[in-house]
Amino acid sequence: MQEIERFAKVLLRLSAVCNALGAALCPASVSAADWRPDKNIEVIVGTPPGGPLDGTARLVQNFLEQRNNGLPASVMNKPGGGHAIAMAYLNQRGADGHTIAMALPNLLTNRIIGTNPVTYTDVTPLALLSSEYIGMSVRTDSPIKTGKELLAKLRADPGSLTFAITSRASGNHIAAGMVLKAAGVDLKKVKFVSFKGAAETTIAVLGGHVGVVMATPTSAWKHVQAGKLRMLAVTAPKRLGGEIASVPTWKELGVNAVSANWRSVVGPKGLSAAQVRYWDQTLGAFAKSL
């Protein structure tokens, strides 16, 4: 948790840090116009096409092309290894400012669980774009109708259900662990199956290969609307808005568990102060446009 808190502070203080670097290293007349991209921008995604992270990357891609007067931008999917492949590819591209990557909590947790040593100090944190709570869903033909029924089943037999997650120590894995631990379920006996992205986890539960899927509401809700999934509860502190307001929180069900999955943007290690200022302004404008 200390790693996560430190990374959050880095992102929240980024604008102030950029301004301080600019004042210390550059003349007073220097502005964000010092550096601008002059060739194709690559947006790297550590998941396959079709999931919410990939969708966010494609929104960034479209925004960059509009903002840079048609200068091309492309999305490069590099799934695998809990985003380790994507982060390795990012730093292989070099710090010329034309390559950025989408990042999830795995950037912090991979090192903690020993799957990959790369962490936030090995890249350049640029922006925290969004944070979304996690839903726990089953197929509509599942005998499990409520979150309380699911927990009762798992307390009696922790290995009776299989959970689909995007990767070990991902945001949805953490959310599931927090819920089940708070509910008194023996986590060591719970079955988790890792996939390369949210799109694959949804396919797995819809196909009956797993019993439960952990997914953000924006990813799973269309399947709820289509009558294919039943969302049992969300890891939010209070009910979400719109149609999703029909889904209870775990806190309402007596489980003290709140957990969100954030989506951020990082660059390769070694970006210059001018490059960081450009991305700070550009990604700030993108966030305001949403």
- End-to-end distance, in Å? 29 Å
Average pLDDT over all residues: 89
Question: Helical stretch count?
Answer: 10
Oligomer state equals single chain
* Global structural class: alpha/beta
What proportion of the residues form beta strands (DSSP E)? Answer: 15-25%
If you had to describe this structure to a student in words, what would you say it looks like?
By secondary structure, the chain is α/β, with parallel strands linked by helices. The protein is 39% helix and 20% strand. The strands form 2 sheets. It has a 5-stranded mixed β-sheet. The chain has a 5-stranded mixed β-sheet with strand order 7-6-8-5-9, with helices on both faces. The protein is elongated. It starts with a helix and ends with a helix.
